[in-house]
Design goal:
Blueprint (H helix, E strand, L loop, with lengths): L7 E2 H9 L11 H13 L3 E8 L2 E9 L1 H13 L10 H7 L6 H29 L6 H36 L16 H12 L5
Antiparallel strand pairs: 1-3, 2-3
Length: 205
């Protein structure tokens, strides 16, 4: 964010993260923001100064240096691109659906839909805001992508609600397991399925 050239406080950087990069990457805590700023200053990538206004306790402002701009530019252009890592707590619960009741799973998904609808609306609003500043052209198109991403997430969750009854019907046909009270696959069947899948799809990595 400092690479956009503005002198900002840690508080301002946190707030900016909340209405920009949180939609597609991460929103750090205030403590993380200040920890990273200290590291950046130690490496000479940013400088800081204390601004005093009308005798009020000063606030520390941070500004990127030429070496800092060069460093983030090198990272953006040359660093290996890491594949996105999806850690979806809702999907993990659905994956463990045999330990739950269908209505509870649907309730979890409905709450998830409420969340993604909120994020979709927020991303759309922030994209409109970004559109007012030409220097944020790339930020604006990423926020539009974020809006579409959350819309797609909502549609997928809605489809899952419909799929739960189908999955529960299939599960009901499985012979009950032991005292744990839920159906179990045959021991070792996952290895057999893995081998068959790899044999049928040799190009998969």
């Amino acid at each position: 964010m400092l690479a956009f050239g503005e002198e900002l406080s840690g508080y301002e950087l946190k707030k900016w993260a909340d209405w920009s990069i949180k939609f597609f990457y991460w929103s750090p805590s205030f403590s993380q923001v200040y920890t990273e700023l200290k590291k950046l200053e130690k490496h000479g990538f940013v400088t800081s100064r204390v601004q005093h206004d009308n005798g009020v306790r000063g606030r520390r402002l941070y500004k990127i240096t030429e070496s800092g701009t060069a460093a983030v530019g090198r990272w953006s252009n040359e660093a290996p691109i890491d594949p996105p890592i999806l850690k979806h707590g809702v999907m993990l619960r659905i994956w463990l659906g045999h330990l739950n009741k269908p209505e509870r799973l649907k309730e979890i998904l409905r709450k998830h839909i409420e969340y993604v609808q909120k994020m979709e609306r927020r991303a759309a609003a922030d994209a409109l805001g970004a559109d007012k500043e030409p220097a944020w052209a790339y930020s604006q198109i990423v926020l539009r992508w974020s809006e579409r991403y959350y819309a797609a997430e909502r549609e997928l969750a809605e489809q899952l609600i419909a799929d739960i009854d189908k999955a529960d019907a299939v599960l009901a046909q499985v012979k009950d397991g032991d005292d744990a009270g839920f159906p179990k696959p045959a021991p070792g069947v996952w290895r057999q399925v893995e081998q068959e899948t790899e044999a049928e799809n040799p190009d998969l990595e």
